[in-house]
């Protein structure tokens, strides 16, 4: 019987999720690379399999319960029962409060909060059965408040409460739950923000780096490294924590 663990990483077609998926595969896990469009996962899956790892592409909308349940069934059939989940899928719909629509509010809540709930709920039974599991949720420094992101910051603060409650409920089954709160990470999400505010991405990154104590912006691998720690065997006594991966202190 294979002892290889199976992980599901959501929003793993690109950006932080892709880096996390590759890192977990390097760590020896079989990885379900889940994103809205299965075809968009091809590059991440190829990078993993070319490096000798095991991965499958899974198309699902995390905000849709039926879609998530079907995706998890596919993962069980193709890779094995998942006991690691990284809730990374995310979107932004930034605007100042007075211009923000209810649709922008709901869309952000649906992907981050309902999405993490749907995926974690579908996977927890396999963790409980295995008496072992690791849940990693993507929060953000925006949880502390960020102009133009009243929806996103509320969702990312929500991810922290979600994480802490999972840690309390599931700890007795050998399951840990932790959150990573990244600062500025260079991805398509931050590139889109630069475009929205009309600043070239290189200038946007330089300005951000100037505000960060380690004097650089983050890269997806910075987050992947932290996820790798949280899912490791040795991190079994670390649960309900939020780690700000932001090149400096945040609180
Ligand atoms: P990204 O480059 O925009 O990637 C996000 C991925 O999630 C995309 O592939 C996207 O697919 C997918 N996705 C969106 N909605 C989905 C849904 N309903 N179901 C399944 N997949 C969905 O973002 P990123 O910068 O890597 O961010 C990853 C996570 O880190 C997010 O939770 C984000 O909020 C968080 N974060 C990022 C930063 C940063 O500076 N980049 C900072 C703090 C926190 P499509 O391409 O099809 O939309």
Automatic annotation (TrEMBL):
One of its GO terms (molecular function) is 3-oxoacyl-[acyl-carrier-protein] reductase (NADPH) activity. Coiled coil: none annotated. It comes from the Bacteria. Its main location: secreted. SMART domains: PKS_KR. Residues 5-183 form the Ketoreductase domain. Keywords: Cell wall, NADP, Oxidoreductase, Secreted. It catalyses: a (3R)-hydroxyacyl-[ACP] + NADP(+) = a 3-oxoacyl-[ACP] + NADPH + H(+). One of its GO terms (biological process) is monocarboxylic acid metabolic process. Belongs to the short-chain dehydrogenases/reductases (SDR) family. PANTHER family: 3-OXOACYL-(ACYL-CARRIER-PROTEIN) REDUCTASE, 3-OXOACYL-[ACYL-CARRIER-PROTEIN] REDUCTASE FABG. This is 3-oxoacyl-[acyl-carrier-protein] reductase MabA. It comes from Gordonia lacunae.
């Amino acid at each position: 019987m294979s002892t290889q663990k199976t992980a599901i990483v959501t929003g793993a077609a690109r950006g932080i999720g892709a880096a996390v998926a590759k890192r977990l595969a390097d760590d020896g896990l079989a990885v379900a690379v889940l994103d809205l469009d299965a075809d968009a996962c091809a590059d991440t899956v190829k990078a993993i399999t070319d490096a000798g790892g095991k991965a499958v592409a899974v198309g699902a909308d995390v905000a849709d319960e039926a879609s998530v349940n079907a995706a998890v069934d596919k993962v069980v059939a193709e890779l094995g029962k998942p006991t690691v989940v990284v809730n990374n899928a995310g979107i932004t719909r930034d605007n100042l409060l007075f211009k923000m629509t209810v649709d922008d509010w709901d869309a952000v809540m649906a992907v981050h909060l309902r999405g993490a709930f749907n995926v974690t709920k579908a996977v927890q039974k396999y963790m409980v059965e295995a008496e072992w599991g690791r849940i990693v949720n993507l929060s953000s420094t925006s949880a502390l408040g960020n102009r133009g992101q009243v929806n996103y910051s509320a969702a990312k603060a929500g991810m922290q409460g979600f994480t802490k409650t999972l840690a309390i409920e599931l700890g007795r089954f050998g399951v840990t739950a932790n959150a990573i709160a990244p600062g500025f990470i260079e991805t398509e999400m931050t590139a889109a923000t630069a475009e929205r505010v009309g600043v070239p991405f290189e200038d946007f990154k330089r300005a951000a780096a100037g505000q960060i104590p380690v004097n650089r912006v983050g890269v997806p691998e910075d987050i992947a490294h932290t996820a790798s720690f949280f899912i490791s065997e040795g991190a079994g006594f670390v649960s309900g924590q939020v780690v700000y991966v932001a090149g400096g202190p945040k609180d």
